Amino acid sequence: MIIGSHVSMSAPEFVLGSVKEALSYHETALMLYTGAPQNTKRKPVEELRVEEARALLSEHGIPMDHLIVHAPYIINPANSVKPEVMELARTFLIEETHRVKAIGASFLVLHPGSYTTTDPDTGIATEICQLNELEGELADHVVICLETMAGKGSEIGTSFEQLETILSSLTNPDRYGVCLDTCHINDAGYDVRDFDGVLDAFDERIGLNKLKVIHLNDSKNPKGARKDRHENIGFGTIGFDALHAVAVNKRVEAVPKILETPWVKGTAPYGIEIEMLETGVFEPERIKALGHE
After folding, report:
1. Is 238 buried (19+), middle (13-18) or exposed (0-12) by CB count in 10 A?
2. DSSP character at residue 38
3. What is the Rg, in whole angstroms, of the alpha carbon atoms belonging to the chain?
4. pTM for the whole structure
5. Which of 7, 74, 104, 154 could form an SS bridge with 21, CB 3.0 to 4.6 Å?
6. What are residue 5's DSSP bridge partners?
């Protein structure tokens, strides 16, 4: 099973520390930010101890394309209202793809963004224009994965149809893929408990070859709530059995699955959750022992 979690990346060990954290949870994949998610300040890649991180991943048989990078949430390529926000999205994405390449990773997960005070069609058109304007300046061999969104506020990318519109309008579609978040699609109205049905709908609109990353999260909300609140595996409205079925589905067995479930009373639950998904046995008392109510 190719599975891991969103791990920290901070001084003094930076990416090396991220890999060590992932290994402590017995992970075979991991996801990180290249800096603080609240801003775009980034250290030079030369300071991030990348070579040591690569060596440690290689020692444990984990390929570099199982290390996923997530862009910060403040990057909004769908914003047509504020020119400074548009320019920030443009310059950061160009720089970030080159950081991802320098690290040796292959996938950069990006929230499609929000249309703010305009409308969905304007947001989607802005996204397409922004991404096409980047062509020629992005790093080679880095796939930008647009994430499925829950539909909170003015988000775009809340349906496979919207993502199809964006991806089919890009100058170089091979440079782009999709990150499917189970909490987000649940909150957007898809039935994760019928995951093969979800994959059929995805394949019809987008193509399964475009599915590069899965965020495996339970949800605090009922299907269609459009709220985006993650829950620990088995404690939400999607449920353990449905999420385990996603984790073992043969159609996506080569796709890295990344947990972004909440910490419990200051403790990361990822090692326990991954073990439960690997064994197929839900043991809620182990998560409750951490303080989950």
Report:
1. buried
2. T
3. 18
4. 0.97
5. 7
6. 30, 259
